[in-house]
Amino acid sequence: MERVPDPRSDHAAIFGAAARPPEILMTTQRMARFHTLEVEEVHQETPDCIVVGLKVPAAEQADFLFVHGQYLTLKLTVNGEELRRSYSICSSPLDVGHLRIAVKKVEKGRASTQLVDKLKAGMRIEVMTPMGSFTTALDATKERHFVAFAAGSGITPILSILKTVLRTEPKSRFTLFYGNTDQDRIIFRQRLEELKQQHGERLFVHHILSKGMDEDKLFNGRISTEKSVELLKRFVNDPMDKEFFICGPEQMMVNVSEALEKQGVDKKHIHIELFNTPVSTEVKKEKDHAHGSGGDFTGTADVKVILDGRETELKIPAKGDPVLDVALDAGLDVPFACKGAVCCTCKARVLEGQVEMEMNYALTDEEVADGYVLTCQTHPRSQRVVIDYDQH
Description:
Blueprint: H1 8-15, E1 34-46, E2 49-55, E3 71-78, E4 81-88, E5 100-104, H2 110-118, E6 124-128, E7 144-151, H3 155-168, E8 173-180, H4 189-199, E9 203-209, H5 225-235, E10 241-247, H6 250-262, E11 270-273, E12 286-291, E13 300-307, E14 310-317, H7 323-329, E15 347-352, E16 355-359, H8 365-369, E17 372-374, E18 378-380, E19 384-388
Parallel strand pairs: 7-8, 7-10, 8-9, 10-11, 13-19
Antiparallel strand pairs: 1-2, 1-6, 2-5, 3-4, 3-6, 12-16, 13-14, 15-17, 15-19, 16-18
Helix pairs in contact: 5-6
């Protein structure tokens, strides 16, 4: 019989031992699998963004338990081609029975255009179980200041985090700096106002509009490094312990990261979510020796892949395709979403041998040191390699 992880095993790690578990507890440890879900509702949030509610059957609810900040991967077909795209969950895991994502139409985006223009309630869609590590453990006994920088659709996971933090840590507060083009493009504008009314002095939301006309120039224009420093000095100057979250376009992420570095913030308290593969040298991690020294191996490796308890032997050239692509070509149902070193869906652990990753934007330094890799970027660097997807 297949072993099913107990959802309670991960609840304390995410919400803290002192937090009361909700009716359905959260889990983050599962093998990624697609399920067919019915679209329950589609709400037009802004002219180019929809909020999609998904109906999860009772028999599959345990598979779709999630934690604040995670995402779903959708599989759809556009003009005969299979596309996989990841969209962050905007509902809170404390709102039992609600599973919602936001989809913003992007220019020339085939998947987002089809979803925004054509998705209707009652349709069915392939959805992968929740994934992602853009989160932090919560504890009802702590008193902290959570600070988030978001732009555009980067608000989606931030909203889930914000709602969950305010309900789980009653002594903590939350400050959001949210960048958009203009007021009509502010996703979840009404919901944020409602939350401000509900939580009073525990929630502060500051809108920064690139086409804004505010008398205070700090709230006009894009979120630059200098602007981020000034925002932090003015609104985040208390002595409380802090956690920082950044989600949005790459340049904004780089700017805010630089500002936090100037403020001396420890990197372990900075959480970053990327929507697209970045290109800036400031954030790029190349040639990550995830396990072993990388070596000078140039031949064809014997690679054992462990998936769902089954072992498969593959021949993978050191200079050839990455492990993920070879495994897919061999017919293995290995999990993946972006293939761009961003989403972490294809994460696995190297148990034996040496490998090298071409790029890594998703794994932490600690995970890499512990032998975890993104198999979409991984190449063998020794004659024998063992990779375990079950240790994800």
